[in-house]
Amino acid sequence: MTSLHPPTPDELTALRRRYRHERERRVRPDGPGQYLGAEAEFGFYAADPYVAEVAGREPLRDTVDVAVVGGGFGGILAGARLRRRGVERVRLIDKGGDFGGTWYWNRYPGVHCDIESHVYLPMLDETGYVPEWKYAPGEEIRRHAVRIARAHDLYADALFSTTVTALTWEESSGTWIVATDRGDAFRARYVVTGTGTMTEPKLPGIPGVQEFEGHTFHTSRWDYAYTGGTPRGGLTGLADKRVGVVGTGATGVQVIPVLAEDAGHVYVFQRTPSTVDVRGNRRTTARDVGADRDGWARERRENFLRIVSGEECGEDLVADGWTASAGLLEKLLPSFSRPDGDRGAFEAAYEIADAAKMNAMRDRVAREVADPETAERLKPWYRYACKRPTFSDLYYPAFNRDNVTLVDTADTHGIERVTGSGVVVGGTEYALDCLIFATGFSVGVSGVHSGKLPVRGRGGALLLDTWARDGVRTLHGFTSNGFPNLIRMGSLHNASSVNFTHILDEQAVHAAALVAAAEAAGALVEPSREAEDAWIALLAEGAPDHEWFHAECTPGYYNREGRGRPNGPTAYPHGAVAFHALLRRWRQESMDEALAPV
Ligand code: NAP
């Protein structure tokens, strides 16, 4: 277990200096511009490896009740909740060849849920499924997505290997025209979007990256035809290969130990080390989690949400690395704000707790990695949660193997150059047969909030144009005036949490209730300008104050590569628990605020 020892005042001063130094040597002037999207000549990095050939089909011109854009947990849950409300024709559309979203794409060796499966997997009460592991392997999660889809008959009308390219409101018919890259132009009376935020793989814009002549792919499109094996390992195709992995975020931390088992040699190109906390994965039984009681899963995930949202809670049912560090994670939440009282004392106490946690993280590296020089390079020097916390009991021991070499690239702002035969760092070329990018995803470049999917509402107005002109305008994040019967999922003006499937399920329940209310009233789902004004005013009142924290953090996607978070309200300021209560109350009392006469 990690031990927490509080720092002395001198240690704190030294830590501050060290954190500043580590941040400064990592911040790059090009910020998010340093990355390449997996498109054009890099488009092969995003191709679907799980569909051998996309079957041809006639373009659709029919009309459905609800089109749901996205077949990940957001879309599936929206579909399931709509079905439970008796909506008949629900059509989910997804770029992938099946349901699962992030769990469809990410099948790399070692892929596991990072959040306890009993709170992460949605609709456990409804489907009767009890996960077999405290942290489920990706395949179990993907199968659960399929289970929910099957249980709610979502396959019947689904469109796979299909990307929605435009949504256009047609006033005369009171329907949305849904256009896709397969030539479809069908109509839907309602549209629900669950398009996710981190769906597009990104690559580092390293000079020469297109010149590598060996085998290369992104972790979210794992090439088992080349590596052999399965997500559980057995990558026999790599036995005699020199494999380079770029990236040591949540994905790298899971994939590197499996590669280390099977590959001839693994070179880990690290720019910033992750915090890697104790995992303690284990098999679980229904009894362990109290799954013999009705509503056990709802109760457990509510308990988890309360704890990680900093709410009072008598008992910690999940009791893991997330709940243990809940106090330190609060600073990531929209609800986080410094108290009005003695801010100095508050920040000082926070800093001490943070330093104690990070000391424990660094102590763990020193204990588990035999070579002191390698251990030193694996130590993270920033405040807790500057980067996505990760958990593994296999990661550090992997660096004790003879066939694993850690290559630290911090001094050169990452890899310097890719050549036809390998990777150059600090003037040394590392010859490679295979180069794997665990470099993550572009944030917010897909879906209705990105511009890649144009949404035209009343009078042909583009959603993003109206927001550029008037600021983001929504009621609860879901709906906007001028865009009738369009319901958007996601955290914008809504809620967020590390357990995002919980947020998505609450959103799905709400979306289905809106559709049902509009059907019953013979109305459109469309808030008034006044309802939007009131919501925006409420968001602005409690806009979060975590800029001070992110401004000092080492760069990453959490702080737009060191530039800090955008100003202004992006989510409900009083936390997910309060937001869900607000929605429940609002559904009972004020649902008509969201409806407009036909
Ligand atoms: P990520 O967190 O964005 O990490 C990308 C990695 O690539 C970082 O280590 C980054 O280094 C490195 N990198 C980027 N450019 C580089 C360059 N030029 N040279 C060397 N290294 C470079 O991506 P991810 O690990 O795929 O995780 C993305 C998110 O997916 C996570 O934060 C999490 O939300 C989710 N995820 C969840 C699970 C789960 O189990 N639930 C598992 C995996 C991922 P820097 O840190 O220096 O930028």
Automatic annotation (TrEMBL):
**Record InterPro entries:** FAD-binding_Monooxygenases, FAD/NAD-bd_sf, Flavin_mOase-like
Q: Does the keyword DNA-binding apply?
A: no
Lineage top rank: taxon: Bacteria
Please give the Gene3D superfamilies that the UniProt record associates with this protein: FAD/NAD(P)-binding domain (3.50.50.60)
Q: Which UniProt keywords apply?
A: FAD, Flavoprotein, Monooxygenase, NADP, Oxidoreductase
Which GO terms label this protein's molecular function in UniProt?
flavin adenine dinucleotide binding; N,N-dimethylaniline monooxygenase activity; NADP binding
Write down the SUPFAM superfamilies for this protein, in alphabetical order. Answer: FAD/NAD(P)-binding domain
Cofactor needs: FAD
The text of the family note is: Belongs to the FAD-binding monooxygenase family.
Q: What is this protein called?
A: Cyclododecanone monooxygenase
Species in which this protein is naturally found: Streptomyces griseoflavus Tu4000
Q: What is the lineage of its organism?
A: Bacteria, Bacillati, Actinomycetota, Actinomycetes, Kitasatosporales
